[in-house]
């Protein structure tokens, strides 16, 4: 008994349950050291930016887990390694995006002016002119494509979930939607051109043809987004409506669709942003013009993607003015797509079902 009491008395008062931890600023310190270690020999030897970034990433991925293993143990070091690889992958993915944005902004901002947004290219040679006609064409063609795609896509999604779930027709439609999702955009343009040639003859060019081509690309996105949002609507809501004697069509229009409206509208907005920058189908069927055209059913219609293509590939003489306008139009197009994505976030939040009492 005495020896047992002596061993208990000799034991430490408390056993630590945690290992030492690296400070919160350790990853930042390792990142700074990695950048310095890669930049110093790179500047002395005349390396480019890409090799220095690659070496800095390798040093960071190796150094941080090694330090963590010595202080925190192998399990925490493995976690640090996984986190470092994720951050390194994210950083490498942001390099081309950041380079692209820097090129577009640095070359496009000097071109922006009131004249650039309010003038077309009619009778303009060399300096001057703007993208007013291309902005109008993009708005008209995209709006027509949305008017065609949204009703078809939403109704197809409602059929697949509410009426045809599990049926052979629904499986066939789902398969076709999957196939349409992977269709190259130029194939959509060829389809629209072939369709309009049947009615108007060879060489037809008009804005509504571009809208039809874009709708081929939009419909599968709208169908898929509608499907996924309708699947998230709880069956209890449908059953409660049926229990009150409400018909199925009214349950769908008054209960199911309003509940899923946030996701559906978000999907539609993202689909519009997706097709707003398409070039290949509009090159084939919508064509290009230097004048403003408000009639989608007559003559050629300029759009921003096609305007950018021709301004850079056929800039005229001297070429620098056409290329500058191409950079400015590219910046405007990117801003429009970004604005549509931000709008989709706000729409999703606005139409989201209110959960508070």
Automatic annotation (TrEMBL):
Membrane-protein topology: Multi-pass membrane protein
Domain of life: Bacteria
Principal localisation: membrane
InterPro entries per UniProt: MetI-like, MetI-like_sf, Phosphate_PstA, Phosphate_transprt_permease
Locations listed in the record: Cell membrane
Membrane listed as a keyword: yes
Transmembrane spans: 25-44, 50-70, 82-105, 131-161, 173-200, 206-223, 255-273, 326-347
Keywords, comma-separated and alphabetical: Cell membrane, Membrane, Phosphate transport, Transmembrane, Transmembrane helix, Transport
Function: Part of the binding-protein-dependent transport system for phosphate; probably responsible for the translocation of the substrate across the membrane.
PANTHER family attached to this UniProt entry: PHOSPHATE TRANSPORT SYSTEM PERMEASE PROTEIN PSTA
Similarity comment: Belongs to the binding-protein-dependent transport system permease family. CysTW subfamily.
Protein name per UniProt: Phosphate transport system permease protein PstA
């Amino acid at each position: 008994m005495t020896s047992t009491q002596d061993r208990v008395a000799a034991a430490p008062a408390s056993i630590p349950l945690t290992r030492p931890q690296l400070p919160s600023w350790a990853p930042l310190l390792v990142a700074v050291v990695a950048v310095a270690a890669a930049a110093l020999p790179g500047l002395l030897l005349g390396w480019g930016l890409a090799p220095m970034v690659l070496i800095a990433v390798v040093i960071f991925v190796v150094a941080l887990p090694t330090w963590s293993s010595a202080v925190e143990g192998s399990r925490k070091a493995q976690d640090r390694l996984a986190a470092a690889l994720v951050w390194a992958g994210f950083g490498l993915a942001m390099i081309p995006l950041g380079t692209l944005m820097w090129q577009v902004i640095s070359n496009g901002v000097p071109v922006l002016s009131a004249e650039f947004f309010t003038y077309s290219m009619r009778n303009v040679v060399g300096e001057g002119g703007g993208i007013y006609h291309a902005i109008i064409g993009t708005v008209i063609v995209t709006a027509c494509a949305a008017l065609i795609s949204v009703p078809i896509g939403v109704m197809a999604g409602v059929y697949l979930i509410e009426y045809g779930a599990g049926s052979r027709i629904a499986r066939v439609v789902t398969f076709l939607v999957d196939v349409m999702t992977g269709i190259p955009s130029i194939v959509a343009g060829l389809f629209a051109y072939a369709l309009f040639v049947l009615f108007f003859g060879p060489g037809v060019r008009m804005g509504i043809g571009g809208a039809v081509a874009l709708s081929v690309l939009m419909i599968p996105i709208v169908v898929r987004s509608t499907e996924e949002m309708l699947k998230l609507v709880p069956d209890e809501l449908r059953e409660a409506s049926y229990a009150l004697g409400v018909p199925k069509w009214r349950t769908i229009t008054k209960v199911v669709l309003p509940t899923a409206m946030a996701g559906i509208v978000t999907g539609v907005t993202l689909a519009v942003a997706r097709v707003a920058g398409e070039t290949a189908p509009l090159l084939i069927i919508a064509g290009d013009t230097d004048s403003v055209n408000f009639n989608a059913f007559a003559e050629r219609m300029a759009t921003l993607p096609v305007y950018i293509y021709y301004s850079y590939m056929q800039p005229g003489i001297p070429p620098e003015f056409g290329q500058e306008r191409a950079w400015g139009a590219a910046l405007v197009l990117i801003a429009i797509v970004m604005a549509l994505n931000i709008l989709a976030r706000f729409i999703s939040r606005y139409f989201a079902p209110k959960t508070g009492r």
